[in-house]
Amino acid sequence: MVINTNVSALRGTRMLHESTSRLNSSLARLASGSKIVSPQDDAAGLAVATKFDAQISRNSSVQNNLTGALSYSQTQDGFLGKVSKALDRMSELATLALDATKSASDKANYETEFTDLRSYISDIGGKNFNGVNLFDGVALAVTKDSDVSTWSLNASALNGSDVQTVVGFAGQAATFAATTANAVATLKTAIEAVATHRAKVGANIQRLQFTQEQVGILNENLSASVSRIKDVDVAQESTRFARYNILVQSGTAMLAQANLLPQNALRLIQ
Q1: How far apart are CA 56 and CA 146, in angstroms?
Q2: 3-state secondary structure string across the chain
Q3: Distance from C-alpha of 77 to C-alpha of 206, rounded to nearest angstrom
Q4: Rounded to two decimals, what is the model's pTM?
Q5: Are residues 123 and 104 in the same domain?
Q6: pLDDT at 253 over 60
């Protein structure tokens, strides 16, 4: 029996410190909802989760890029749909102008509408989306994954060779008219060209939508992986918390008892 060194109290202090430390860690996990409150909790898991979190952030940016590209392509298709209707009407006017029973005044009236529609199509050929030309024939590169890999949209040149006969070159007046020889045949070619453009743009939209879905599924699975690494199981952790809480209370009580043991030595020297 000694007075200066209370081994039981030292052991009780150490065990109480361990229980208190575990209780505090459990409390922090429940408060934060994360199993990894500090790096030492799971160093390797933290590294993996950090990498996945960064990839998820990049994928979210990719989805924003894809949304912009989708809006760009949908705008293209909207304009091309109007161009197609305008060309349909122009072919109708050109057919009406072939009627030998129409007077020169009648044909002039047809020509007025025909010219306006031609100018309308020419104006659309110079339209922009957020400063990017819609129909300059340049294939836009679109980011498709978190590694910054890209693919190019099918380009659309509205004022290309199949349509420029109808609308003329940019900044130049077109001489094509409703009464031009073979006007209907020329317009049929232009209509087919616009239909081809719409098919290309439609393919762009389809692929963009599939790519968006793919990136969304990838982010969903990455988030599930991060959750398995980082998120705390509340039921399991609350059970641990209750256990550590009891250990802290019992450890505190036993430490108090251990601190009283040296007093027994006093009885030997009284």
Answers
A1: 8
A2: CCCCCCHHHHHHHHHHHHHHHHHHHHHHHHHHCECCCCHHHCHHHHHHHHHHHHHHHHHHHHHHHHHHHHHHHHHHHHHHHHHHHHHHHHHHHHHHHCCCCCCHHHHHHHHHHHHHHHHHHHHHCCCEECCEECCCCCCCEEECCCCCCEEECCCCCCCCHHHHHHHCCCCCCCCCCCCCCCHHHHHHHHHHHHHHHHHHHHHHHHHHHHHHHHHHHHHHHHHHHHHHHHECCHHHHHHHHHHHHHHHHHHHHHHHHHHHCCHHHHHHHC
A3: 12
A4: 0.78
A5: yes
A6: yes
Per the domain annotation, does 2 fall within a domain? no
Residues 14 and 120 in one domain: no
CATH at residue 110: 1.20.1330.10
Residue type at position 262:
P
Q: Residues 84-107: what's their mean pLDDT?
A: 89
Neighbours of 224 (CB within 10 A): 11
pLDDT tens figures, 125-159: 788 999 998 888 888 999 988 888 889 999 888 76
Domains held by the chain: number: 2
HSE-up of residue 167 (Cα within 13 Å, Cβ side): 28
**What is the domain range of residue 103?**
45-229
Per-residue pLDDT at 174: 63
